[in-house]
Amino acid sequence: ADKHDDVAAVTAQYALTADELALLPELRARAAAGGVDVARYSTKRLVQFLAGKKWNLDKAVATLIAFDALDREIHVLDAPLDLLVPELETGKLRFARSVDGGPAALHFRPALQIPKQYPPQQTVRILILSVFSVLEDSPSLRNGIVIVGDFTGYSWANFCLEDQRFFIETLQHRVPARIEGMFIVQPPWWIRTVMALISPFVRPKLRARMARLTQEELLGRLPAAQIPQRLGGTHEQQVDDMLAHFRAVCAQHPVKASTQ
User: Fold this and answer.
1) Which residues contact 108 (CB under 8 A, 6 or more apart)?
2) How confident is the model at residue 5, as a pLDDT?
3) pLDDT (tens digit, 9 = 90+) per residue, 167-185?
4) Residue 212: CB partners within 8 Å, gap ≥ 6?
5) Secondary structure letter of residue 257 according to DSSP
């Protein structure tokens, strides 16, 4: 083991139980049988896949295999991070880590998502790195993530069904994101049409956790420290802060896959 794979440190960080730790060898074995080069994944990252699927081994294995295939395709963990800077500077996606032991928050501004402006694979890379960044916190690992979509200024010009499907299916099937809520804030009156179009890709459990909120209602659901200033909160995140978190995530994967 190296500095990226300190089992004792990970156990302490996430307060892992003996039963939770006992799942790691089988996760490694089954993922390897599914074609994953498990040497690429630190103990911390494997724990995140298990916790993200509520310690369901079958689901964790399937998610890890799906993520590994995507990573080999779009190089989530080893492509230069500088490539992400122009898209990060649009402000379309930000994250807020856990406050007072609650879930983390991912903030997305669909009005800033312009189809074909950036490759959807790049947007997904930002999304995945943001998820891994918030999972560094033990409360986020245990209590999940809330996704907040600020639909202010959203129009049909921002909508691409193929991209939306890619984003949703990645969140549900390829990353260890335990989504505890999806808040749609200040949507246009025709949002029902959008929801009907994407509904076939959304699991019933996640669909039940969706809620349309006003700005005032959002302030009653999340701490102000997790809500952007434009929505009445106090949270602001700079691109340099996001990149620092992304570098820390990628540093946990110093071993390249044996086959590319």
Assistant:
1) 92, 93, 147, 148, 149, 150
2) 63
3) 999 999 999 989 999 999 9
4) 183, 184, 185, 187, 191
5) P
